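Z., the sequence and structure:
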Amino acid sequence: MKAAMYSVQRFERKAFDNANRDGMHEIVYITAPLDETTVPLAEGCTAVIPSLNDPVGAATLQLLAERATERGLQHPGPCRCRPSGVQGRLRARLHAACGG
């Protein structure tokens, strides 16, 4: 899978490269936050990975669904975006982003 990861800090890249050392995924590291102006940077990617602090609103999600990702923002099946231990605003945001 090719994924665009937004708001990546230099120190994070090493950790993600280490986690992906088998090369199963192609990660496109983007230092800018995910918003309406940076959506085109995810073109050709199957997935996007925003930072928790990225201003991802409805307009950004709509742009991603329309043009930036190969499959848009489709939920992969039964909602799994509400993992235990994740609460409050983050939990709501994860569920809103998944469309489930």
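The longest helix spans residues 58-68. Confidence is low (pLDDT under 50) at residues 71-87, 96-100.

Let me know what you think.
H.
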